Sequence to fold (643 residues):
Amino acid sequence: MPPRTRGGYTSDAPRRRPTGSERRRRVHLREVDPVPDPDPVEHPQHDRDETEEVFEGARGGPIDRSILRSFHKHVAAKIWLGEDRAPLKLVNHGVKLQLWELDMERSRIYETVHRSGLAPLTSCSHRVASRPMLSAFCERWQPETTTFHMPFGEMTITLDDVASILHIPVTGSMISFPQPLRVDDANALLVELLGTTDVEASRETEQCRSPSVRLLWLRDHFSTITDASSDDDIMFATRAFLLHLVGCTLFADKSATSVAVVYLELFRDLSMVGSYAWGAACLAYLYRQLTTATRFEVRQLGGYLTLLQAWIYEHFPEMFSSPDMSYTESRPRALRWRPHVIPDSLQSVRERLDRLQISEVCWEPYVDHRAEHPLPDIAWYSGCLKCGQVMEPYHPERVLRQFGYIQTIPPRPFTPPRPDRSILLEQYWERWTDHVLTDQSRGRRCHYSGSGESVPEYMAWYDRISHRIVQPPQLRSGFTTNARSSLPSHAASTSDTRAARALTLLRLVISGGREQSVDVFWGALNEAHGILAGSDETSASHSTPSPAPASHSTPSPATLPFFSPATFVYPPAASDDPPPLIVPPPPASVAPPAASGPPPPLIVPPPPASVAPPAPAPDPSAPAPDSTASTTVYVRAKRKKKT
Fold:
């Protein structure tokens, strides 16, 4: 018999190289020997990790992980397994921008800023950002595709979105830096381009503990310079203002107080500032910040959040937006909305996105804006975007519906080149007209504008390679028939726990909208009253909640079981206490009214058990109490004490 080699192969049988999926699953392949082996060597399959065991075949994770290869490290994977993450801390400098405004006394600085193409950033930045909303969308971002994976397909922020929302240039030279800046080089750059002294530069970078400067330091040293100052001072102040502007907007990092000095190199020649593709660099930087925030241990989100928030307002206007009625199409679309913090929690927004329908999306929001700002051709560019050492893929073929075309199954996403080969990317970008999607790649336009159509096989493919919902139904707060099991335990008796349970129940019903019937609201108030009064403690053991449905369909808000009066399960009342808010029958001493007479009077229910009943009326036939005995006892006790 031919000898066996490692892995169970025989030396005579030809070896077959295992495929990638077989290597990932650690399955040992062995050719079948035509001669039966009297002493076979068994090679059991290795145990799979916990993530693969849970996610294979589940809607919360991809079945085919050839696209989302790092999904097991994603925050959505942790949420599916029952872990949770608080809303992200957001880095937003909308208020700081108003601390350094360019008025008529600084017109020379404003002229240079206007020629750079960055002037719209001084007025379109949102002062507030919604943590629950942005955190929920961050949970749907996938680094491999640089898209948001929604229940109905992929969506992303395109170069067209950047140009329409911010009105900054998206074409031009890529923003590149030869290498990361060291602290000594940062000090030399501050002295050369901002006119500071070596001591001031060293003190500032030492305080930041990095090659960065504080935004406050820039305002304190250069915001007082006016047109009456010298030419050198105006040039230094212009560079400082541009550095402050991009540090508060396009390249806002998670330090929340400083900006990297390396961007100052872009403002060395002020006449060339307008030649850069600022919009492409902003998008690449935001892509990287979203990618970093998809890790479960990350607690903060940087980048230009006005762009992300305005993009959500544009494409989901019925869910989150609050439009400004005074807006005109000549201004950036970021000014079309009134930013506000939504009152919903992260859990509520997460569930709203899980049941989002394709009809609730505005696929082409800039139709009215095309007269002032037509669709740029570079929006069809398919390749990589760059911002210094950051390089991220850009795939318009994955979001054809946002351009008004029928979505087809896209090709596999490509990975960006290594940083040491970024020169090839710059050459690729310079010839971007050769790398736009052809008419054949774009396919056919949708039959109806904004319909969001896709080919029939798209959703079956998307369901295999993606995750359509972030949270499993059994972990939701109240959108299943097992809604009551998500509330705190009935056995808790503290007032804080009771109040929290009652508020949670009422919040779930309120989030269902006004289209619900009166019975649903009455039932919620009835149960909340029972929770606060403590009447459901003894009945908790008698109620058996029904299990969550195993259906993979996404119900609409009007058909959710929790909001249906027929399926709203109330706990049975205990045998000793009457049910809450139930009108009892009239006492026996009161004769029932005749059938043809007026309606019976409203009978007030008895008070709870915790309230003492009123004292009964005195009976005239009973003997009067002996008040003398008690008085005598009192007098005797008093005399005895005196003696």
In short: The mean pLDDT is 77. The first strand starts at residue 89 and ends at 90. The longest helix spans residues 231-248.
